[in-house]
Amino acid sequence: MYEKKDKKPSETKSGLTSLAELGEFGLIDRLTRDVRHYHPDTLKGIGDDAAVIDAGDKVILLSTDLLVEGIHFDLTYMPFKHLGYKAAVVNISDIAAMNGIPKQMTVSLAVSSRFSAEALDELYAGVVMACNKYKVDLVGGDTSSNVKGLMISVSIIGEAKKEDVVYRSGAMPGDLICVTGDLGSAYIGLLILEREKSVFQVDPNMQPELSGFDYQIGRQLRPEARTDIRNLLIGTGVKPTSMIDISDGLASEVLHICKQSNTGCRLFEAKIPIDEYTKELAKEYKIIPSVAALSGGEDYELLFTVKQDDYEKIKDVAGISIIGHMTALSEGKYMITPDGKSIPVIAQGWDGMRAK
Length: 356
Ligand code: ADP
Ligand code: MG
Prior knowledge:
- By secondary structure, this protein is of the alpha+beta class.
- It has two domains: about 50-165, CATH 3.30.1330.10; about 170-345, Alpha-Beta Complex (Phosphoribosyl-aminoimidazole Synthetase, Chain A, domain 2).
- The protein is about 30% helix and about 25% strand.
- The protein is globular, with a radius of gyration of 20 Å.
- Magnesium ion binds near residues 49, 94, 97, 245 and 247.
């Protein structure tokens, strides 16, 4: 779901507010409007990729994510092992987005009797594989039966020095907008999987045979978290002014930074990094490649801003693209096309696209 700020939530027949009109972020705002903090060590609560808790000379970063069958994953083409891996990675990514180091996680499951122990073994093999790769300790969780389907909730703790934490709120007009890796391939991978869906069967040992689209499908089924960027940036001597991970698509995430930082933005369409074959496939699906990057989501790359003075330090770093700059709030949020047109940046996240 995406935010519809300028519309009043419509009422259902019963006079109650519909969730569809409120949108995900409208709902979070509404549910949390009376939340107050009692502890001064809660440095940042709701509104960033992770909460930030003072722990003396360090801070603790805390984040949680819920994956629901039929909403976030489809078991007809998502192997259990990949699902476990992805559930862990999306949480690790939120710690990377705060410029922190992921350390411990808990994993909770709600599972119906439709699933075998062997299937859940596979799921856990994926979780453990991610924990091994990213050096995260699995320290607990909860297990429940479920009426229907599978839900996985992962919570993660990370750590950072207080001065190293990067919030969504630190961008200033003039800052350069940067993105790691390339965008849009995870969404094209999803489209390929949806197209091929009918040929798959639910089988814990299934490995989809989809040769030729390995990169796009891999980006969708088995994303990685950019924990490497923290060290890369330390090496360049640049500290981002703001940062977020790209779970819902570039447009939605840049708007989160704009909202939290009280700025506008200019993105340059031609600068958005997109894999060449993904561009070709996007055209086959009659999608403008930049739209896959802006609205597709699930690439789990990092979007961050740096001071203009850091341009020389960042401009030639492999795997980082400068795609625009922040502006004053009054200058709006636009993407400039190669022929010079200004298009408003609109958050049409992953769920929004799916519902189409
Ligand atoms: P992300 O995409 O990085 O996982 P979300 O968009 O899911 O972040 O959430 C945005 C913010 O809202 C986060 O700070 C998150 O902790 C908070 N949040 C989400 N759902 C709830 C909820 N039900 N109650 C309280 N806070 C929530
Ligand atoms: Mg995030």
